[in-house]
Amino acid sequence: MKAVICLMVLGFCAAVMAEQCRNIQDCGHVTCPENDYVLECHNYVCTCTHVEKTCAAAADCTGDCRFGWHCVDSKCRCGWGIGGK
């Protein structure tokens, strides 16, 4: 029983690590919603960042974002979901 639990935990950890990006090449599964966004790997997460718009809060960000907007480093970022859009 302990071996089964150990294998389950290791499998979960492997799945979580597989979703993290180290560089932009790891983000092939993500498509940005519009042309004024750039695909980035930010804090090991694939995100779409608005090229020009700045923000003070997530409410300042608009547009199509499947997983909800985030305002990080004064930039509108769409991401934080598994599988992208």
Description of the structure:
- The protein has a domain of 59 residues.
- With 85 residues, the chain is an alpha+beta fold.
- The chain is elongated.
- The chain is built from one helix and four strands.
- It starts with a helix and ends in a 6-residue tail after the last strand.
- The chain has a four-stranded antiparallel β-sheet with strand order 1-2-4-3, with no helix packed on it.
- A hairpin with a 2-residue loop joins strand 1 and strand 2.
- About 8% of the residues have low confidence.
Give the distance, in angstroms, between the N- and C-terminal Cα atoms. Answer: 38 Å
The count of helical stretches stands at: 1
Proportion of strand residues: 25-35%
- How many strand segments? 4
Q: Report the radius of gyration as a whole number of Å.
A: 16 Å
Strand count, sense and closure of the main sheet?
Answer: 4 strands, antiparallel
Order of helices and strands: HEEEE
Multimerization status: single chain
User: Per the principal axes of the C-alpha atoms, what is the gross shape?
Assistant: elongated
Which strand order does the major sheet show?
Answer: 1-2-4-3
Summary, kept brief:
This protein has 85 residues and is an alpha+beta fold.
Layout of helices and strands, plus pairs?
Elements: H1 2-18, E1 37-42, E2 45-54, E3 69-72, E4 75-79
Antiparallel strand pairs: 1-2, 2-4, 3-4
Feature tags:
85 residues, alpha+beta, 1 helix, 20% helix, elongated, signal
